[in-house]
UniProtKB/TrEMBL annotation:
<comment type="similarity">
    <text>Belongs to the 'GDXG' lipolytic enzyme family.</text>
</comment>
<dbReference type="InterPro" id="IPR029058">
    <property type="entry name" value="AB_hydrolase_fold"/>
</dbReference>
<dbReference type="InterPro" id="IPR013094">
    <property type="entry name" value="AB_hydrolase_3"/>
</dbReference>
<dbReference type="GO" id="GO:0016787">
    <property type="term" value="F:hydrolase activity"/>
</dbReference>
<dbReference type="Pfam" id="PF07859">
    <property type="entry name" value="Abhydrolase_3"/>
</dbReference>
<dbReference type="InterPro" id="IPR050466">
    <property type="entry name" value="Carboxylest/Gibb_receptor"/>
</dbReference>
<protein>
    <recommendedName>
        <fullName>Alpha/beta hydrolase fold-3 domain-containing protein</fullName>
    </recommendedName>
</protein>
<feature type="domain" description="Alpha/beta hydrolase fold-3">
    <location>
        <begin position="77"/>
        <end position="211"/>
    </location>
</feature>
Amino acid sequence: MGSLPPHVVEDCLGIVQVFSDGSISRSEFVKFPMEVEDDGTALWKDCIYDNQNNLHLRLYKPRSATSSSAPLPVLHFLHGGGFCVGSRTWPNCHSCCLRLASALHALVVAPDYRLAPEHRLPAASDDARASLKWLQHQALMPSAAADEWLREGIDFGRVFVVGDSSGGNLAHHLAVELRPGSPELAPVRVRGYVLMAPFFGGVVRTKSEAEGPPEKYLNLEILDR
């Protein structure tokens, strides 16, 4: 009598499923409750920043930026998703970054990072750091060798790291590691960190976990797993 086929033991929103034999399935087709909001005031493109792990980031800049404009500050945007879902390509992240680039007149850098359970922490933290090192590498390159959007008109001395949910957790750890002024990233200088509803958890419940309203999707039951 043959063994039973693998069955689902963990299911995260139908996007990630863990099977009884330890295998993992990640869906590439996600039905989103929203669409991309793009009014054409920002441009974007994708770049690879980590060849070994095939990790990409998305660059955004205001369409109105010209060579005679004031240098653009940089917003380094780390998406959320409980460390197990999310991407720079998802409509919520893409729409947010388009709006940030246009409204703040800034260059936005939105990296993907490796996700759990295939890649457990600190893989995501390592990737967040690597994406900032990529920005430093671009700043140090001869102008002709750097990405064309980063050759001129970028103020690498005014970088702000923005993190949403689990991205806020990553931003926190970057702040602790890089210290004020991020001296090891020179000439890139991180001037500040913005944590948007940062995701922190541990053995003891945080106040928001213990007293906050129940979540429909990334609820405590899923996050505890």
